[in-house]
Amino acid sequence: MNNHTFGRYPDALAQDVAMERNQRRMEQNVSLTDALPGGDLVRRGLADIAAGITSDESLLVGIGAPKLRMLGLDVPLDLPADPEDALYSRLAAIDSDSAHARYNALIRLLVSFERSYRFAVR
Fold first, then answer.
1. Structurally, how many domains does the chain consist of?
2. Were 99 and a residue from 27, 35, 73, 91 both cysteine, which residue would form a disulfide, CB within 3.0 to 4.6 Å?
3. pLDDT over 90 (residue 86)
């Protein structure tokens, strides 16, 4: 065995171990997401973003994207611009009288998810 091959083996092994660990973590994240308050909204939002769909859930994930990424969730970088205004506009188009209350309720669910997720993955 030459040094070149041997020298690369630990790096390749470390990379394989890291990839396997990330895969297990992502699988764990999916099951954790469903069990937490607001997790269904976050899961649907991530799926909608991946599919290129603009929905209330995808906009909510866009609002929480910086914090969700910090928590270790894989949130894409190419998100709709100004998700706060876009979400509020969508809610107001359905019923302007209750838009503010529904917007605040969604934000509270997002914050609740972020807080509980942080403690769940410790």
1. 1
2. 91
3. yes
Q: Left (φ > 0), alpha (ψ -120 to 50) or beta: where does 38 sit?
A: left
pLDDT greater than 60 at residue 1: no
Per-residue pLDDT tens digits for 10-52? 566 665 655 565 555 555 555 656 788 999 999 999 999 999 9
DSSP state of 36: S
> What Cα–Cα distance (Å) separates residue 67 from each residue in 17, 24, 60, 100, 107?
26, 21, 12, 23, 13
Cβ-contact 112, 33 below 8 angstroms:
no
CA distance 102 to 108: 10
φ/ψ of residue 71, rounded to 5: -80, -10
Determine contact, residues 50/71, Cβ cutoff 8 Å.
Answer: no
Cα separation of 73 and 42, whole Å? 10
Domain range holding 8? 3-120
Report which of residues 51 and 1 the model is more confident about. Answer: 51
